[in-house]
């Protein structure tokens, strides 16, 4: 009795210490099981539903070329047979019994799986998730079916002319580590995947100490933790850190600016994309906040970028984007030029980039407005509990929960000097990749290789 009491005190002290280290809103709670499984519970009693989500640090960033696309295929197979539900009929019967809406997503730095169901089915949902995450069966027949489904997703992406440009830019931007950023994967790798390859992925990454469990909705956090502990507490931790055993290689910095033309006859209008290596959450957290504020400002209709390109008639659309990642987030400047004024548009794009760090390119009022609206945007995103769960698992993988919960606080620290430093460190006078998408008829007429170049 005394031993149990002592262990309980130790566990409570441990949980309390971790909770104190995390900056969580009042309705969010954290625990970490002895096997390393991190758990977040978000109480939201608005609707009598609950979302159960589990995410693993897997995805394209773990993929060598011979595995490119298989994290995504694994995600599809998660919703197939397992030890407790040996075939698709049994699996879907249980889905119907629990009134589950399920799905999953694969990104560069995580794969997540989620069930949304009535709150009274929480325990059944946890057990159902446990069966899928711990005991999958990679049956050949299921794989043959899902190989084709995943490959069809690939083909749908390829049918979008913008995909050809994005893919070409990525190949130039990431070089021999292209597979680490190419989530959809390789046709041949997907179509020739075997159960053995799925087992390799499972044995590398699918452990509690490489996962997070998010439970969000109309639940009591103490009950949620207790039930999750009963279900997942026996899940054995790995005896290794996968990112020490199979480290993600560092992306080599670009050494030169690279211009190229991509021809596609399904492209009705031309598109231009510039991309740079940007900050990441391992090496320059402050830079990621500056990147968000900068992108927000230049994307507004009151910005100088909009006035110089869209309002002037040089472009049909423009946008600047930074994608936050743990391993090098890309910065993208994309423009749909007026087909009759491509050269003028290109020249103006370069001119604007040269001005991005100037003292008067944006005002203090624009900076404060951007920070305020980004904060409001975050609050709005959290209104839908299921989406909130997805957001938390994304940030858990690509940075930390604290990164997200202190996002507004850190946005408020961004100054004009920070924005200028961001531009100078990552964009202005830095090597980049530049792609022009154009159809063959327009290419023959305009001869873009004569003007689409660095100088």
TrEMBL record:
A GO molecular-function annotation: metal ion binding
Pfam families attached to this UniProt entry: Peptidase_M16 (PF00675), Peptidase_M16_C (PF05193)
UniProt domain Peptidase M16 N-terminal: residue ranges: 40-175
Domain Peptidase M16 C-terminal: 194-374
Top-level lineage group: Bacteria
InterPro entries: Metalloenz_LuxS/M16, MPP/UQCRC_Complex, Pept_M16_N, Peptidase_M16_C
Matches recorded under PANTHER family: METALLOPROTEASE, MITOCHONDRIAL-PROCESSING PEPTIDASE SUBUNIT ALPHA
Family classification: Belongs to the peptidase M16 family.
Protein name listed in UniProt: Insulinase family protein
Source organism of the structure: Adhaeribacter radiodurans
Higher taxonomy: Bacteria, Pseudomonadati, Bacteroidota, Cytophagia, Cytophagales
